[in-house]
Design brief:
It is built from two helices and ten strands, in the order αββββββββββα. By secondary structure, it is α+β, with helices and mostly antiparallel strands.
């Protein structure tokens, strides 16, 4: 349990350091989307509206509002799709009555970004006790 706590603290510190990077102008815009429903990224809830997704680092993406302000920065992992997407894709899952952003694919790519689901972390941590 102590090791899991230490790892989570390091991950939090790493994520906070990437947030500062996410504020820079060097982030590459990946896509712009009109999301017609309320959704979650991690534990944060966002209303329906226009959003931009920008790549901050090869493993990090930032969700931005219509004024290009960074709303949340997320450390992701790579995910492969059996097909190449001709248009950018935001993939949502319905969990406990709420839409959760789970994957992002750029136009012309079969490799995307898998977002973590923080709700599952306590179950993983408990299973290691």
């Amino acid at each position: 349990m102590k090791r899991i706590t230490v790892n989570l603290l390091w991950l939090t510190a790493f994520t906070l350091s990437l947030t500062a990077v996410g504020q820079s102008q060097s982030a590459k815009l990946m896509l712009k989307a009109q999301v017609p429903f309320e959704f979650n990224v991690g534990e944060k809830v966002f209303p329906a509206g226009e959003y931009k997704v920008a790549r901050v680092t090869p493993e990090t993406i930032a969700l931005r509002d219509d004024r290009n302000r960074s709303l949340v920065t997320v450390v992701t992992r790579s995910v492969e799709s059996p097909k190449t997407y001709s248009t950018p894709v935001l993939r949502f899952e319905l969990e406990d009555g709420r839409y959760v952003l789970t994957q992002v694919f750029e136009e012309g790519s079969s490799t995307g970004y898998q977002l973590p689901n923080p709700k599952r972390l306590p179950a993983i941590a408990q299973s290691h006790n």
